[in-house]
Structure formats: C-alpha cells, structure tokens
Amino acid sequence: MEAVKELIFDRLVYSCAFEKVRGMEEFIPEHFLGFQLAGETHAFYAGTSTIIPENSIVLVRKNQLIRTTKYPSKSGSYKFVSITLDKEVLQKYALENRIRAAARYEGSQKLIFEPDDFLRSYFLSLAPYINKTKEATPRLAELKIREAVELLLQCNPDFHTILFDFSDPFKVDLAEFMNEHYMFNIPVESLAKLTGRSLSAFKRDFTRVFNAPPKQWLLNRRLDEAHYLIKYKRQKPVDFYLDLGFENLSHFYYAFKHRFGQTSSEVRAYGPATDQRHP
C-alpha cells in the first residue's frame, strides 16, 4: 500500500503508510514543524543522515534539500504530521511583536528535540482536522501557525534567529555545495536558489568552477559515483540508482554504457575487490 500524503488545509500535511516507503527528493522552501506520531523517518540532507524517532518533533529550516524513507512502527503504521511556518505569517508576527533577528542562525542543521507537554498537546489538537471532524478556515489556519511559533519560542528562545531571518540565502561555495547535493534530482532553478544565486549567475559560476554546464556535470558526477559503487563496492544499479538521482534504470544503463564503454555488469564482473578510494 502506498503512502498517503494529504493536505488537510493549506499548510497542514498528514502522511500515513503501512509499509516502508522511499520518498522523493523535496526542496523545502519554508520552515516546517513536524511531529512523528508513529514509526520513524530516515532523512538525508546537508550531506548527512538522521533518524526522526517516534514521539519526537523536528523543526526543518527553509531552503533545504531532503530525501526521506518512511518506516512503520511495530504496530504496522507510519504517521507524520507537519505544519508550514510560512514567511508571510512569520513576518506579520515579527512586526506585531517587534521581533528582529540579531544574527543568522549558525547552529546545527539537526533540529530534532523531545516535545514538551505544550507542543505535544498542540499536535494532538490538530487531530480533528486530520480526522475531518472539523474544518479549518484560513483565519483558523493562521492562528494555528501563530500558536506553533509561540510554543517554539517558549521551548527555545534561540529559535527566533531561525524563524525571523528573512534575508536572502548566502552565496555559498559552489564546489562544496554541489559535491554534497549532486544526487538530488531537482531542477537547476532550485539549485541556483539554494546557492544564493540567480539562474544566470549560477550557470555562469558553475561553468567557471567545473568547466562544464550543470546538467552535464551532474550526469557525469552521478555516473562516476555509480562506477565506484559497482566496481569497488560490488553493488547492483537497482539498489542505488534512485539514490544517485536517476529517474529510471533504462536511462541509467544507457548513460553508463555511453560514458564508460562497458555495461554495469561487465564492470562489476571484472572489477577489483579492493577499494581504491579508501585503501
């Protein structure tokens, strides 16, 4: 059975599954607050992997790439609810409460924390909307976001440097960013935004740094990693092609043969058993 991902109202999303589900790459344009009701979520982002266990809360910062895998609990279900803390509501809240972030947040990307009684009760209060026993008006939806903000600041006042930072993304180091995120299959426009550049500036800087256009470099980088996994790790393409950003196996096999002059089976059959990357 496939996962159910349902938009309850314009900023509240409920996900439910009864078997392991691999999620697709997602570009997160706004902060969101999530609660793991049942099961656990394995998330890959910012070059690292993390596990969101049952009964924990996660605050995910805006402008990130995330890939998730959903695992049901022993009872057989996976349930996750999230609410988007969108820029418009946060700006209104900051203006009304005379809040100004003094500096950018420089802490860890990993923002998982045990819920206090107030935050736990907050997510339980969303049950009527999830169960469709109550309908949320646009005004009520905004009030629920404001309530989440109040509770977050009560839990950790330092979160104001995250929530109320309305500046544009930094212009990040392109080589470092791309080598951490090459496996995400997202549009070039999203990559440009994440690196703090316009699309034209991104393409110009990319060609200068890598001596190749973005799409060609991404394909070659993914194929080079695939070659390493096949030759030295003895892995099969079916086990990793999605994780490297390929949409289907037929495209992967064609591109691999075209780049290396051998099929993946031939490389795997005659490749050395020792790992040349990590002797």
From TrEMBL:
Tell me the InterPro entries matching this sequence. Answer: AraC_XylS_family_regulators, ExsA-like_N, Homeodomain-like_sf, HTH_AraC
Keyword Transcription regulation on entry = yes
Domain HTH araC/xylS-type intervals: 172-270
Q: Which UniProt keywords apply?
A: DNA-binding, Transcription, Transcription regulation
As one GO molecular function, the record gives: DNA-binding transcription factor activity
In terms of SMART domains, this protein maps to:
HTH_ARAC (SM00342)
PROSITE patterns, per the entry? HTH_ARAC_FAMILY_2
Task: Quote the Pfam families the UniProt record gives.
Answer: ExsA_N, HTH_18
The record's annotation in Gene3D superfamilies points to: Homeodomain-like (1.10.10.60)
Name this protein carries in UniProt = AraC-type DNA-binding protein
Species per Swiss-Prot/TrEMBL record = Siphonobacter aquaeclarae
